[in-house]
Write a structure and sequence with these properties.
single chain; alpha+beta
Length: about 210
């Protein structure tokens, strides 16, 4: 288990001029623990989506092989935004390579979205105004590259509004659910849930490089 603290993005959005609720949320995020095999890295925070933002990148690495990667962005607008129905918004990305035949499954987009909702449910996380896209892409190779096997990738982009309690949301739980999703995308089994009866998630068969 590793902490996000050493990987927090730096910038004026974390200074004393930032709202207390945002600083508390960022502190909770940087103190959150990550599941095994998930490695964090700093990312520049986006400047145009909200007055205050914090971003973290992550990759799932097993035996020095990267199996999935993504990013987690926390946005805050003290005045709120109509589309959010709140003052905070989580914006995420998760992607991984697939076996080429897996990418042709017509149910893949719906199943991939269910992995996200399942990860949130397993953490007991509630969300408002969820939205997202699932994109699958495949590549075939010809000519001098004709000897390479086909490649396929799945990408999930999602955002949601985390309900705020005591002025700021339980960001650590949302971040943990996203890390769990990354592990699933990498084909790793979920770590034991906090509650024995929490729903499980079927891992995604991934392509070994």
């Amino acid at each position: 288990m590793t902490a996000a603290r050493a990987h927090q993005s730096e910038g004026p959005e974390h200074g004393e001029t930032a709202p207390a609720a945002f600083r508390q949320a960022v502190a909770a995020l940087t103190a959150a623990r990550t599941p095994g095999a998930v490695h964090l890295e700093p990312l520049p925070a986006p400047r145009r989506l909200a007055p205050h933002a914090h971003a973290v990148g992550a990759s799932v690495v097993v035996d020095e092989e990267e199996l999935a990667d993504g990013r987690f962005v926390l946005l805050h607008d003290p005045h709120g935004q109509e589309a959010w129905q709140g003052t905070f918004r989580v914006v995420t990305l998760a992607r991984a390579e697939l076996e080429a035949e897996m990418a042709t499954d017509p149910l893949l987009p719906e199943v991939t979205w269910s992995w996200l909702t399942g990860a949130l449910e397993a953490r007991g996380v509630q969300v408002r105004q969820p939205g997202g896209t699932v994109t699958r892409a495949g590549s075939s190779f010809f000519g001098q590259l004709g000897g390479r096997p086909p490649e396929a990738e799945i990408e999930l982009r999602a955002s949601w509004t985390p309900p705020a309690s005591f002025g700021f949301p339980d960001v650590a739980a949302h971040f943990g659910a996203w890390c769990d999703l990354l592990r699933q995308c990498a084909g790793l089994p979920p770590e034991p849930p906090a509650e024995p009866d929490a729903p499980g998630i079927v891992p995604l068969p991934h392509r070994r490089r």
